[in-house]
């Protein structure tokens, strides 16, 4: 399995993360939330690995939601959360980097250069 980075191409944090990977010569696939819909299986994997950090509560998309939608996103109802996510993927924290590198499993959320450097 290779690395997949999930996010939005024109996001500044995504640009930093992808530049970092390119500089390190790391090969990866890019899953663009603007061009593809995340599967429920992949979303559930994100939740299993990262928990509630998957939802970017600091972002504009989240802040635009009404209170009822925010309550659903804070609930344990995975199907209801996915129904919101699949149509509002920009509410997901980015980047998410999953896969393997040099026979090590990689699961990172957000871009912290020091943390990412430890894996390279």
TrEMBL record:
Signal peptide: none annotated. Coiled coil: none annotated. It comes from the Bacteria. It holds the Pfam family ArsC. Gene3D superfamilies: Glutaredoxin (3.40.30.10). InterPro entries: Arsenate_reductase-like, Thioredoxin-like_sf. Belongs to the ArsC family. This is Arsenate reductase family protein. It comes from Moraxella oculi.
């Amino acid at each position: 399995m290779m690395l997949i980075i999930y996010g939005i191409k024109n996001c500044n944090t995504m640009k930093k993360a992808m530049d970092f990977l390119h500089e390190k010569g790391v090969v990866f696939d890019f899953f663009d939330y603007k061009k593809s819909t995340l599967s429920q299986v992949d979303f559930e994997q994100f939740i299993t690995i990262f928990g509630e950090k998957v939802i970017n509560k600091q972002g504009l998309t989240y802040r635009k939601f009404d209170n009822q939608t925010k309550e659903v996103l804070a609930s344990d109802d995975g199907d209801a959360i996915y129904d919101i996510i699949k149509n509002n993927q920009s509410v997901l924290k980015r980047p998410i980097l999953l896969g393997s590198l040099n026979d090590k499993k990689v699961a990172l959320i957000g871009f912290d250069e020091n943390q990412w450097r430890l894996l390279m």
